[in-house]
Specification:
This protein is an alpha/beta fold. Among the domains are: 130 residues, Methylthiotransferase, N-terminal domain (Rossmann fold); 89 residues, Transcription Regulator spoIIAA; 65 residues, OB fold (Dihydrolipoamide Acetyltransferase, E2P) (Beta Barrel). The chain is 34% helix and 21% strand. Helix 9 packs parallel to helix 10 and helix 13 packs parallel to helix 15. The longest helix has 24 residues. The protein starts with 12 loop residues before the first strand and ends in a 19-residue tail after the last strand. The relative contact order is 0.08. The N terminus and C terminus are likely disordered. Bound molecules: iron/sulfur cluster. The site of iron/sulfur cluster has 10 residues, from helix 7.
Length: 489
């Protein structure tokens, strides 16, 4: 994430640490924008900060442990400088609530993801009253549907340019929350009921981003392809309708959407991906397991046969479409046979890549209450490594077939391995960009290329990256008619 700290003295300095998904990155962007509008300035050094905020994730135990140990470290800062305000925001705040104040009583604000617009006023109140403030949304069964929905308010979409991945790319939230209730997942509790945003607001926000220089957007939703909205004129919008409307924005060049839910993969959406050139030929659609018994325990609402049928439809409708997936290994009761079925699914699906996670029980979920976490850690680790090895071999094989091909990429910035400052680089640096199938290309080029679209040719690959070279076309600077040689008499 790009952060441009402003070092003007006498303004409240803000440090924000974000863990978790793209939703969290976007939430941090919005909180920072709101605090900057109130005179705060960003710092990248927590030791200089007057306000330290952690935007947290609850999806895995590991992410929570990281935050509690970071809180242990900032406790020392608070002891030395008691006026520093400490905040815990996001999913962990919604899930743990008072537990956070019990474990870290020096925390000043605890704010769930549905209450983030209140961060500035809560910080002020905590400072004035010298006591912790909390704002969380209602529990999923804590009131009427309307009361619960209202407690997960939509955040005012003011944008903080400095927090974006790059000045040319931005996330746009089109949905909040989730109503699927997979048994292992905390999201329906932490992010509330599924709510789609008004398409006209999404279009306006995208136009604003494009005016600011963005040419690629990623539409975000927990189950983004479940998007549906009825406008006041009675028109029903699906994700395919939204893609078509966004396609009409001049200077917007690329549109991606994540994350899809298998059961909601409709034909109209696949046809939109096929027919709208601005839309990535890439779909992220988690399978989670290749075993029906596990899918039932996870309450994923589809069978393996239905997932296979969806994959066939994707490839039939959109030739060359890249698909990626998520898997949980070591879920409660997963036998070797069940795990082998997952391996088979990965082998026949030939995903571009898979994100593989070891199951970690989360308090407040059905799986936590219903099923013992009975797979030993060693077995989870082995299955994780084995599945990763199968996926990596497929990715490598499929990437090798791309050697020699040319792709257009948006040059996003320096590659991860580039050390130094692109602004002062005098020669070519290692750059990175993505193809329309979301494959990462690495190539050498002038830093001035960052933000532009260009063709690169693949020369070698790993399972993750396509090492490429910039294709330099011969450019004609004069009209063809002027090329004729002068007649010498
Ligand atoms: S679809 Fe399932 S895994 Fe995804 S956010 Fe909703 S409940 Fe969680």
């Amino acid at each position: 994430m790009n952060v441009s700290p402003d070092e003007t003295p006498n303004r409240l300095k803000l440090f924000v640490d974000t863990v978790g998904c793209q939703m969290n990155i976007l939430d941090s962007e919005l909180v920072i924008a709101k605090l900057r509008a109130q005179g705060y300035e960003l710092t990248t050094d927590p030791l200089l900060a007057d306000t330290i905020l952690f935007n947290t994730c609850s999806v895995r135990q590991h992410a929570e442990d990281k935050i509690y140990s970071a809180l242990g470290r900032v406790k020392k800062i608070k002891q030395r400088r008691p006026n520093v305000a400490i905040g815990v925001l996001g999913c962990m705040a919604q899930k743990d609530q008072d537990e956070i104040l019990k474990r870290a009583p020096f925390v000043d604000i605890v704010v769930g993801p549905g209450q983030l617009s209140k961060v500035p006023e809560l910080l002020e109140k905590a400072r004035a009253e010298k006591k912790p403030q909390m704002a969380v949304s209602k529990a999923r069964y804590g009131g009427s549907k309307l009361e619960i929905v209202e407690s997960f308010e939509e955040f005012d979409p003011i944008r903080e340019q400095a927090m974006r991945m790059s000045p040319y790319q931005a996330f746009v939230r089109i949905m909040m929350g989730c109503d699927k209730f997979c048994t292992y997942c905390v999201v329906p509790a932490t992010r509330g009921p599924e709510q789609s945003r008004d398409p006209l607001d999404i279009i306006e926000e995208t136009k604003l981003l494009v005016d600011q220089g963005v040419s690629e957007i990623t539409l975000l939703g927990q189950t983004v392809n479940s998007y549906k909205y009825t406008t006041t004129d009675g028109r029903q919008w699906r994700l395919s309708d939204l893609l078509l409307a966004l396609d009409g924005i001049p200077d917007l060049r690329r549109i991606k959407f994540i994350t899809s839910f298998p059961k909601d993969m409709t034909d109209d959406l696949l046809q939109a991906v096929r027919d709208i050139p601005k839309v990535f030929r890439y779909i992220h659609v988690p399978a989670q397991s290749g075993c029906d018994e596990m899918l039932k325990r996870m309450k994923r609402l589809y069978t393996v046969a239905q997932y296979d049928e969806m994959m066939a439809r994707i490839h039939e409708t959109i030739p060359g479409c890249a698909v990626s997936s998520d898997f949980i290994v070591g879920f409660c009761g997963e036998s070797e046979e069940a795990f082998e079925k997952t391996v088979r699914l990965v082998e026949r699906s030939r995903f571009k890549n898979s994100f593989i996670f070891k199951y970690s029980p989360r308090r407040g979920t059905k799986a936590h209450d219903l099923y013992p976490d009975d797979i030993p850690e060693e077995t989870k680790k082995r299955r994780n490594n084995d599945l990763l090895a199968v996926q990596n071999a497929i990715s490598m094989e499929d990437n090798l077939a791309l050697v020699g091909n040319t792709f257009e990429v948006l040059v996003e910035g320096p590659s991860k391995s580039f050390q130094g400052d692109v602004d002062t680089a005098t020669g070519p640096v290692q750059l990175t960009g993505r193809t329309m199938t979301d494959r990462i290309c690495i190539f050498d080029g002038n830093p001035r290329l960052i933000g532009s679209y260009m063709n690169v040719k693949v020369v070698s690959v790993t399972g993750v990256s396509l090492f490429s070279e910039v294709v330099t076309d011969r450019v004609s600077h004069v009209k063809p008619a002027q090329w004729s040689l002068p007649v010498i008499s």
